[in-house]
Write a structure and sequence with these properties.
The protein has 13 helices and twelve strands. The chain binds 2-keto-D-gluconic acid (8YV).
Length: 321
Amino acid sequence: MAEKLRVLATRALPPAVTDRLSRDYRASLNPADRVLGPDEIVAAAEDCFAIICIAGDRFDRALIERLPASVKLLATFSVGYEHIDLAAAKARGLQVSNTPDVLTDATADITLLCLLGAARRAWEAESLLRQGRWTGWTTTQLCGTHVGGKRLGILGMGRIGRAVAARARGFGMKIHYANRSRLTPEQEQGATYHADPEEMLPHCDFLSLNAPSTPETHHFLNAQRIALLPDGAIVVNTARGTLVDDEALIAALTSGKLAAAGLDVFEGEPQLDPRYLELPNGFLLPHIGSATVETRDAMGFICLDNLDAVAAGKPGPNVLT
Ligand code: 8YV
């Protein structure tokens, strides 16, 4: 029987995924489950046929060019792949795969959690209770913003954006969207298309960022665009922190230009601008969009499906290069 191929996982994987990986491959796991530096990745990837990485790992050209020649596949445990230089990977003949579809529902769910959490002041309310400051019900206590009947603008109407729209419709929201291309009428479900995202902003009582991190979306939400939103609008970001200019968002949340924000992602995470933590109108989560047991298992299995295909000399189902 042929010897099992060696695979490096840069981070610990969910137990069910580890079991399958260890059954079919010689798995080299990162026991400390911390972010490995480039030198550590190069050393640990020796003799490996594939690397499973996460979105927090940066595979730039310099690192890709240093990887051992044995490495044929880089399977990222994420749908986003902005952390990998695809051109450098292609030039080196390295295949790259991601994990689309399986995290759409979980991420759309967390988007609604952020939207509702921000609109209904969930963090302030829970703090009141947990800190023993709740002295009784009053007619004006912790009143937030109603979501039914309000307009939700979605930047990026891919799989996750569309799943957010479907959920928000269930809450009675009216959907506007900005996307590079217009959806079909079946996909649109009556949503209003804006070819120009800036043109959409004045129509957004709520704005949800669901676009990938690219040079075009970098700091999309800056001071000038926040000014285009209606006063008292609520912003939600479950995509990538790079879409937001933190300075501008914090200023708008402090001045009251924006009523609230629901944020699951931050530029430079796990570090974040400490001023966010002081804002009562920030509903903040530590990047848990895809964090359900079912979703994380499914993401891991997709990585392994791509490993299996490439190991068998077949095209990986989610190969991007
Ligand atoms: C991942 C994500 O869990 O898939 C993505 O792009 O942002 C998350 O679902 C995280 O990035 C770890 O790779």
